[in-house]
Structures are given as structure tokens and as C-alpha cells.
Amino acid sequence: MELIQIFGYYFFWHYTKALRDAIRISGNYIWFVANFFSIGLLAQTLFSPWRRLRESGGRGRSESFVGALFVNTLMRLVGFCARSFTILCGFVALGFTVFLIFSAFIVWIFLPVIIFIIFFAGLGYVTKAIV
Hints:
By secondary structure, the chain is an all-alpha fold. 83% of the residues lie in helices and 0% in strands.
């Protein structure tokens, strides 16, 4: 009788408190990956110059203005490419994390059934080996 109560308590914990904690923890994983790649910050500064490198144009000379315009445009383009690549890698990592979390939830939901099946399949192999 006590064994049945233990199974009942386990199933109650497995599908309520543990599942709720797993959802909270998975939110922490998603938050970590998004902040590790700084997706929000990189999106805000997408068109900023790369590492704040910029050239200031000289006064009254058109050559220095054109050179500064070229260097500043080039640094913004390099910054855009680098930030875009990092954001893309962040989204791929985020997608992979969500996929792993979803897979873990599917396994967690069916885990008691999987354990039951594996236990009785192993018991069947043991009894078959004895006979």
C-alpha cells in the first residue's frame, strides 16, 4: 500500500512541481543564450561603426572629407557585417536551445512510461535468458 502512495506522490511531483521548475529553468537557459550573444544590444547598435573607429574630416579640404566619408562608411559596413553575423549565430544557438528544451520536455512527459517499458522489457530478457 505504501508503494502505491509513493508512486502517486511521484507522479504528482513529476507532472506538477518538477514540470513547473523545468519551465522556469528553461526560461533561464533562453535568457542566458540571448544575453550571451547580446542580441538586443547588437540589434540596437547594428549600424554603428566597428569598435568606434571613425575618421574626422579636415576643414576646407574635399579630399579629407571624401576620405573620412569612405572610412566611416567602411567601418559602419564592417560593424554591420560583424554584428549581423553574431546576431545570426545567436539566433541559431537560440533555436538549438529551444529545440533541446522542447525535446527534453517531450522526454520528461513520457519518462514514467519509458521507464516502465524498459523495466519490463529487461525483465523479459532476463526471464528469456534463464529459460
